[in-house]
Specification:
Elements: E1 21-28, H1 34-44, E2 48-49, E3 61-64, E4 67-70, E5 81-86, H2 90-100, E6 110-114, E7 117-121, E8 127-131, H3 135-138, E9 144-153, H4 158-167, E10 173-178, E11 181-187, E12 193-199, E13 210-215, H5 219-227, E14 231-236, E15 239-246, E16 253-263
Helix pairs in contact: 1-2
């Protein structure tokens, strides 16, 4: 008999922690033309229009894995930064974007390959960076929205932004560095982050675009935000909004981006989104393959 004891495996248990922010639900920008939005988001990017909600001309909800874009029809809003998406096949994406180009002439639409990503710009200037599925970066995500990266003025205190997410919202957040320099980040689910990166470029005035997050502890952050005078809208029982990320010590605004903040009791939390296979058409149709899988096996 071998009496040698085998050491138990060791794991980094912190990798499993989510923090209080459990969902990055959607990015909302207004658009002036649903036809052009369809040509870009549906035909070009290969995403899926929600078939159940906002199916008219006044708004369009676009599914991307377990996240969404919300595109109300009124004016133009542009995210001060870049939204990152994962799609199954960048080569197929380039073909779709090339085809969609003729429907988007005269707009700000553009796209280009940049290393291992495809950089795209919507008809009104929103920047979207397209990635292939990469388990080392994005886990099992096959279709989804792994991050929204905001450009912030050079000299902004990155640690102060991370501290706001930790101490006010109860999130997991910090400051890291990559080949592009330091950045602040906050987890917004097991698969998504918000990122804040300094830029020397002149930033436009904030135009009202917003992101939506969901909190497990909904009332605790609400109390802290009320004490600081930061609540901008008491929407309903399940939702409130705030506009400013502030320095926890001084309450000085650091960056303005509206957070539509929901509870896990919100009726639409964890709603299952329809995702299609954009490479399936009537010409190559095979029953059962029209559904897009949002996660790798």
């Amino acid at each position: 008999m071998n009496d040698t004891m085998t050491a138990p495996p060791t794991f980094d248990r912190t990798v499993e922690d989510l923090g209080n922010i459990v969902e990055l639900g959607h990015v909302n920008v207004t658009v002036p033309d649903q036809g052009l939005a369809t040509a870009y988001y549906i035909m070009g990017l290969g995403l899926t229009r929600d078939p159940y909600l906002m199916a008219g001309l006044e708004n369009m909800w676009v599914n991307v894995g377990r996240g969404q874009f919300h595109l109300p029809t009124r004016g133009t809003q542009v995210v001060r930064g870049t939204t990152g998406l994962v799609v199954p096949d960048l080569e197929a994406l380039l073909k779709r974007l090339t085809y969609a180009k003729k429907f988007l002439e005269g707009t700000q639409f553009s796209f280009r390959e940049a290393g291992d990503v495809v950089e795209t710009t919507c008809p009104w200037g929103n920047r979207i960076r397209m990635h292939a599925p990469t388990p080392a970066k994005f886990g099992p995500m096959r279709v989804g929205m792994p991050y929204v990266e905001f450009d912030i003025p050079a000299g902004t205190d990155l640690e102060a932004i991370a501290r706001f997410y930790r101490e006010i919202l109860g999130g997991i957040a910090g400051v890291s560095q990559d080949e592009r320099g330091p950045y602040a980040w906050a987890n917004c689910s097991m698969e998504a982050k918000v990122i804040y990166r300094e830029t020397n470029a002149e930033l436009p005035e904030y135009d009202g675009h917003h992101i939506q997050i969901t909190l497990a502890d909904f009332s605790g952050p609400h109390k802290k935000l009320v004490e600081r005078g930061l609540i901008s809208e008491e929407s309903d029982q399940h939702q409130y909004r705030f506009l400013d990320i502030v320095d926890v010590d001084t309450n000085k605004p650091l960056f303005r981006i509206e957070h539509e903040t929901r509870s896990m009791r919100h009726p639409m939390f964890n709603r299952v989104f329809v995702n299609r296979n954009p490479d399936m058409s009537n010409r190559n149709f095979v029953p059962g393959y029209e559904v897009g899988l949002w996660a790798l096996n």
